[in-house]
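Fig. S4 source data, part A: sequence.
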Amino acid sequence: MVINQKFLVFRKNPEETPRYERYEIPLKPGMSILDALFYIQDYLDSSFAFRYACRGAICGSCGITIDKFPQLACRTQVAAVKSTKKPPKLPELTFGEVPSDWNEETEILIEPLPNMNVIKDLVVEMEPFWKFYEEVQPYFAREYNDVQPESLQAPEDARSIEHLVYCILCGICWTCPVNATDPHYLGPTALAKAYRFIADTRVDEKHRRSIVERVSKSNAVPACEKHFVCNRVCPKGVKPGTAIGNIRKQHLTP
């Protein structure tokens, strides 16, 4: 017997008022939310737009909001959506007027990432995200003829920043309430990446000071209000809020 799953999906074309469309698709064992989105696009509405790339929770492209909880579509199982415990104290996420007859028990609500402008359907404008990311200079700035021991790193030093390296730049941590109200706030991703290089023993002091100077500005670390929503929603356990706190304690506190 075929079991169907109902979806309530956010739709928006440029210059149009957002709306929600209902779809019903046949479930298959192990079906992810990304699989379901493909089914909608392939069989029900070819105009439906969303982002994806690796399908393996590595690229970060398929971040969306599922039942008011931002997640990676490729690693979220359809069968587990209603039984998965959501992180506590998530902010209220509003994208459009959800139909009053949405059945939260049976229908899976699909919406884009929060605090970003919607280009079409689930595709959001990531340009501000990447702009702020570039501003923190998340790279090594050594000369090309670098020689040892500058490139060497002790195992314990590598382990201390390992969790920060796991960031896949998915943008899910922009669920942060500060990003919702301040379009100039660098955001948890950029600040966590900044600390990843500030704390890296292979970074030369001049470059480290340059990063610290940027994240010391009013729209960076000082703007963080310590909600720690970023820690709770990060799919990779990066804990951006903790990284921001470390910058504040180690480099900004008099």
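Fig. S4 source data, part B ends here. The chain has two domains: 4-124, 127-252.
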